[in-house]
Amino acid sequence: MIRICWWGKASRLHGIDKIIGSVKKLHHNYPEIKLSIFEDDAKRAEYLKQSYMGLEPDIGDFLDVRSDMTFSTGLGEYLSDEADIVLGVFGGTELGMTVVPNKVVEAMALGAPVVTQAATALNEFNLIGDGLKVVDPDNTFENEIEDIIVRCRENSKYIEDLQCGLVQKYNENFNVKLYRSRMLRVLWGNEAFTASMHREAFDEQVR
Asked: Which of 29, 61, 101, 191 lies at a C-alpha separation of 20 to 30 Å from 95?
C-alpha cells in the first residue's frame, strides 16, 4: 500500500477537490494508493464523505476520511508510521502562494515527502527538492507523486535519503532557537519594539 495523507480543514480553499481528483487518477494506474484525509471537524468530515462518496460510490476504494485523530491525540505518531507521501495546499489563493504552509513544516519534521503548490516562501527558505516537490497552482500533481513512487521502486534507499534530507532541512530552518532569532530580527524593524530593547540585549538574544 502507498498511503498519501492530508490533514486540516478540508475546504475548496485548500484545494480538496484537486487533491481527491488527482489521487483518483493516480489510483487507476496504482491501485495500491490510498488517500487518508484527517479532517479536524467531525461535521465537516461527514459532509465530505457524503459529498464525494454519495456521487461516486467507488471512491471509497481509495479514499478514507477521518475525524478521530489530531496531533494532540496521536496523529503525529500515525503519520510517522504510516504516511508515505504528504499533500500540502492546492487552493491557489494569494496567501497559499506566498507562505510556507504548516502542513509542509509538519511533514518535514516527520521526514515525509511532500507535494504542494508553489509558494514564494518555499524558494526563500530553499526548501524545494526531491523531498519537497511543488506544482503550479493551475496544475495537478500526478506526475510529482508518480516520480516519487517510481524512484522508490528503483532504489530502496531513496526514501531513506529523502527522509534524512527533509529532517535536516527542518532542523536547519525551523528549530525553535533559529525561529526565535528570525522573529526578533523582524521585530527589530518595529519602532516600539526597538525602543523597548537595548541593542546589546538584542544581539545577545539573536546569537
From this structure: 191
User: What is the value of pTM for the model shown?
Assistant: 0.83
Beta-bridge mates of residue 85: 4
Lookup: cell for 114? 511532500
| Kind plus residue range of the DSSP H or E element containing 116 | strand 114-117
pLDDT, position 106: 94
pLDDT of residue 99: 86
Mean pLDDT, rounded, of the chain: 84
Task: Note the pLDDT of residue 202.
Answer: 47
3-state secondary structure of 35: strand
Whole-number Å distance between alpha carbons of 46 and 93: 25
DSSP 8-class letter at 129: B
- Between CA 178 and CA 82 the distance in angstroms is 29
Alpha-carbon distances of 156 from 149, 160, 163, 180, rounded to whole Å: 11, 8, 13, 37
Q: Low-confidence residues of the chain, pLDDT below 70?
A: 54-55, 57, 185-207
In this predicted structure, what is the pLDDT of residue 111?
Answer: 94
117 contact partners, CB below 8 Å, separation of at least 6: 15, 88, 89, 90, 91, 92, 96, 97, 134, 135, 136, 137
Which single residue is written with the C-alpha cell 480543514? Answer: 9
> 161: Cβ–Cβ under 8 A, 6 or more apart, which residues?
130
